[in-house]
Amino acid sequence: MSRPTTSQIIGKGDYLQPDFNPKTLTIPHLIGILAYHQIPYPPQHNKAKLVEIFDEEIKKNYVELRKEWQERQDTLASEEGIVNGVTGSPVQKQPVRRSSRRASREPSAEPARIEPTKRRRASAEPRLGRARRTAPKRIEVISEESEDEQPQVKVEEPPPKIAKKRDSEAARPSRRISQKFGPGTEDSGWEDYNIFQSGAESSSPVRSPTKKARKSALRRRTSFSAPPEMPPSPPKAPFTPPHFDFSPELPPMEPRTPRWRLSMQEPSDDYYDDVSGLADVSAAIVVEDDDGEEDDEEQQFLPRDQEDEDQEDEEEVDELEDEENELEDSQTVAVAQRIAEGGQLVRRESKSDQSIPLWQRIAILLLVLALSSLSAWYKIESAPIGYCDTGSHTNDVLLDIRKKREETESCYAEHSEDGKRGSCPPLPLVPLPRPEACTPCPAHATCSRFSVRCDDGYILSPHPLSHIPYLSELANGLPGLGPIAFPPRCVDDELRKKHIGRLGKLIDTTLAETKGNRICTGIDPEKPIDGGEARKWGYDYEDLKSTLYKKEYNNREDSRLRAEFDAVFQEALGQLKKYGRIIEGKDSTGRKYIASDHADMTWSCKATVALRRSWAEWRSKVFGTIGLILFSWYLKVKNAQRREEKQRVAELVQIALDELREVEMRHHTDPVTTPHPYLSSVQLRDLILQDEHDPQVRRRLWGPVERVIEGNANVRVNCEELRGGEEDRVWTWVGSTGLASPSKKRVSLPSQSPSRE
């Protein structure tokens, strides 16, 4: 068994039952049902989502959707054919009658002439040669009243042929619209006047009359719905051949109007009221063209020569006629579809002739006058009250009015017994409402009786209705509107806000750059100063304000500008202080200073500050490292020097010992040249270290030599008087004399000994 289609499911309407389960449907079925009822669904969907939409949109509203579905189903064409709208039984299809061409006279012995073939779709090309004159044709007009009446035949003479196009318009075939309901149907819900129903064309003065009576079946039919099924037509009257008069008759020329109008016109006087059996154009529209067969019936009564001329002329007319028929058919279909899709006919509203009675007019006039008088009296008392005082719900005028009322009431209360009420102010005869309130002062404003002044940072915004001339004067004090009908409001001054924001940004930038420059110059942040951090990194309050004022107004001196700038400057500082962008401080004299909590520096300053901070942090470590390196190097040098001095001391000791041994030997071998066997310690030092000119170095080197020599057992230390008469320590060699030590060869000594001096 094949699965039903979406159209079949919608046609049955079972899904509109309250107990229907939408899960039994497929996704295409659900999408088709939602689209049929014009219910939106998401592009990305699945069956669960569609079922959910079905439950929410269709199942909950199945009663309304069922009624809508039933109405739409009633207007659809039945697949079983056309049925009677009342009984529901199928309407029998009317057999189509076709006329046969019969000769009007006996055939002659002449050879049959070949007639040219009709061109139904020839292009509208210009035809060369003169036009043929033809006899005017009589046009039969059929006006239909109902199916029960016989058609009335009217014979009219067409206007003379002026051009091919106008002749084709005059000879345009009539059109008949098929009917949905049979004759006598009274429950039709359609308008009496319909341009697509039969009878409308006959009643319209714009339509041209039809060319011939409808006697046979149609040769051509263009249908836009199911084929029509018509009840059997009534018997037709016997046909009488028309008498043709070839003399031209010119009817009065009437201006042509467009055939189709979007708005329906009122039916003319000759329009028939009984239209219950006319067609429902939304169900079926059939455009019929019966020119071909009617031409054949007419030609059988014409003479042969006239028939030949008409045949050639009709070929030209048919070409233009087909083109106009196609255009007219498309327009007919467009209008019919628009009506079938739900368009409604335009009806003229019926004008009511009933007028308001005179007593009602007088009552309304008196009521208006009374209300106007009361409103004027209320306005006179309420308008002078004005605005309430700032932060209050009353003012002096309202207090005076209340005081007078209380005095009047107390006066009447005091004299209620003694009857002396004549001295009291009069009271109103009717206790009418009296003004008891003033107009509240707008927020962020300071109000007097008739004036409003907004606070700093706000501007006055008038009421939109106050711009209408004289409206405020008329509305002030009316009941329900208050003493001031359209009070203004105080709104934020956007220009002032922008000015404050720009000035605050300028202050923040100036202070940040100043702090950055001072940090870059190397000010000690740890050093205390009178005024604190604000003075160290910022500006004096007055100096900063003067500097920025000159920058803003180019050194213009104006008291008004100065006062305005001071207010804006103070508010900008308040905004910066609110967000923690500035710091404040005072010195011992009371002067106020302002500085930024952050610094703005260039890249070079940032590099300088970073190096300075790094040096401050690593300076001790760098110096310690350098000192350690230098000390290590010093120790190394000292050790090397000490080793060198030790080596040199050892050499000097050996040289000194060799010299003492040699002096002892020379004294014994040559006492004349060496009279003394000893040498002075100082003289021996200067003799050996004669190349060292630094006395300190000599002493440093000779000290260890003295200690070593004096500790030697082969040397004796004595004090002897030298040649100069000075006593000094002398060294005498007392050991054995042998060969000189090899170290002596490395030291060159002078040839003479000090004793020789």
UniProtKB/TrEMBL annotation:
<feature type="compositionally biased region" description="Basic and acidic residues">
    <location>
        <begin position="103"/>
        <end position="128"/>
    </location>
</feature>
<keyword id="KW-0812">Transmembrane</keyword>
<dbReference type="Pfam" id="PF12949">
    <property type="entry name" value="HeH"/>
</dbReference>
<dbReference type="GO" id="GO:0071763">
    <property type="term" value="P:nuclear membrane organization"/>
</dbReference>
<feature type="region of interest" description="Disordered">
    <location>
        <begin position="80"/>
        <end position="275"/>
    </location>
</feature>
<dbReference type="GO" id="GO:0005637">
    <property type="term" value="C:nuclear inner membrane"/>
</dbReference>
<dbReference type="Pfam" id="PF09402">
    <property type="entry name" value="MSC"/>
</dbReference>
<feature type="compositionally biased region" description="Acidic residues">
    <location>
        <begin position="290"/>
        <end position="299"/>
    </location>
</feature>
<dbReference type="InterPro" id="IPR044780">
    <property type="entry name" value="Heh2/Src1"/>
</dbReference>
<feature type="domain" description="HeH/LEM">
    <location>
        <begin position="22"/>
        <end position="56"/>
    </location>
</feature>
<feature type="compositionally biased region" description="Basic residues">
    <location>
        <begin position="209"/>
        <end position="222"/>
    </location>
</feature>
<feature type="domain" description="Man1/Src1-like C-terminal">
    <location>
        <begin position="366"/>
        <end position="736"/>
    </location>
</feature>
<dbReference type="InterPro" id="IPR018996">
    <property type="entry name" value="Man1/Src1-like_C"/>
</dbReference>
<keyword id="KW-0539">Nucleus</keyword>
<keyword id="KW-0597">Phosphoprotein</keyword>
<keyword id="KW-1133">Transmembrane helix</keyword>
<feature type="compositionally biased region" description="Pro residues">
    <location>
        <begin position="228"/>
        <end position="241"/>
    </location>
</feature>
<dbReference type="GO" id="GO:0003682">
    <property type="term" value="F:chromatin binding"/>
</dbReference>
<feature type="region of interest" description="Disordered">
    <location>
        <begin position="290"/>
        <end position="332"/>
    </location>
</feature>
<feature type="compositionally biased region" description="Acidic residues">
    <location>
        <begin position="306"/>
        <end position="329"/>
    </location>
</feature>
<feature type="compositionally biased region" description="Polar residues">
    <location>
        <begin position="195"/>
        <end position="207"/>
    </location>
</feature>
<feature type="compositionally biased region" description="Basic and acidic residues">
    <location>
        <begin position="154"/>
        <end position="172"/>
    </location>
</feature>
<keyword id="KW-0472">Membrane</keyword>
<protein>
    <recommendedName>
        <fullName>Man1/Src1 C-terminal domain-containing protein</fullName>
    </recommendedName>
</protein>
<dbReference type="GO" id="GO:0005783">
    <property type="term" value="C:endoplasmic reticulum"/>
</dbReference>
<dbReference type="GO" id="GO:0034399">
    <property type="term" value="C:nuclear periphery"/>
</dbReference>
<dbReference type="InterPro" id="IPR041885">
    <property type="entry name" value="MAN1_winged_helix_dom"/>
</dbReference>
<dbReference type="InterPro" id="IPR025856">
    <property type="entry name" value="HeH/LEM_domain"/>
</dbReference>
